[in-house]
Amino acid sequence: MIKKKGPTIQDVADRAGLSKAAVSRYLNKSIRLPQETGRKIDEAVAALGYRRNSIARRLSKGGSETIGLVVPEISNTFFSEMAEAVEQTASERGYNLILGISRNHPDKELGFLRWIDDSIVDGLLFVTNRPDNRRLQLDIRRYGAVVLLDEDIPGTAQDKVFCHNVAGARDATRYLIRTGHRRIFHVTGPVSLMSVQERLEGFRLAHEEAGLPCPDAHIFHHDYSQRFGREVVGQILSHPVLPDAVFAASDYIAIGMLEELKRNGVRVPEDMSVVGFDDTALACLVTPKLTTIRQDAAELGRIGTERLLDALARPETPRGVTRIAASLIVRDSVRDTRT
């Protein structure tokens, strides 16, 4: 049995009354045509049932027309919001997306970088939230087509998109001070992470501006997890000085704390105020609703994707760091002690 040959791009061009080159460039999104001309091509494609040979098209362009996004986890709504924005932005530019979930495992992260060598992707958006032992740094420096999101990897010169961590943390701490709190603890992630260092800097700056002490004994490091949030409550409640407020460097830490504080009979915000960072979707679902610093995960994803695709199109484009705004979102987890 002879397989019937499908319609070709020349058939589409003939039906639309246009050149094959114009139709090809229109379908590849490399040319803008008048609305009426584009409509003729779309109608010809629909009438003939034409389907592009995507493999041949990609080979002819010398790339996969696919980018990758590597995140530590996808159950965290921050990363799922980011992934959705990346996919939408990539699709608008004619690219597909492959998602890699590293679970912060070093070998998995390095393996995803090999996607570029294997031509699975043309470039990567990369998120890690663990300290690097220089293995990532050394590998990422080999690749031009990598954009770092949310967290830095020191020693790399890639495009990077972060939020204003210092300003956000300072605003959170200022708000607590402005509402009458004076014994403020800080619960945060691994010491060597950029976001941890910058949020701690903002925390200290707000204390310095207010003329308040900021003892190291009031700062607790571990990781950005609900588990740590629950575990640190025991350390806080057994501390010689009980805080009247806690600034947690992530919503996940703050949410873990809310659970454990309630279990220990500590009322939030009546007995202790809590502020988070990120403004994940969960911040509105917990009780009390969490006052937090918003960094827009979708904006990180959108800008990062644009930077990556621009770099793929124009490799000579200068690289740099882009910062997005961090803004205070006031809800129910802080009590104004002055009233």
TrEMBL record:
Top-rank taxon of the source lineage equals Bacteria
Query: What InterPro entries does the database record attribute to this sequence?
Result: HTH_LacI (IPR000843), LacI/GalR-like_sensor (IPR046335), Lambda_DNA-bd_dom_sf (IPR010982), Peripla_BP_I (IPR028082)
Q: Which stretches make up the HTH lacI-type domain?
A: 7-61
Write out the entry's keywords from A to Z.
Answer: DNA-binding, Transcription, Transcription regulation
Q: Name one Pfam family in it.
A: Peripla_BP_3
Task: Tell whether Transcription regulation is among the UniProt keywords.
Answer: yes
Q: Name one GO molecular function term.
A: DNA binding
What's the protein name?
LacI family DNA-binding transcriptional regulator
Q: Which organism is it from?
A: Acetobacter musti
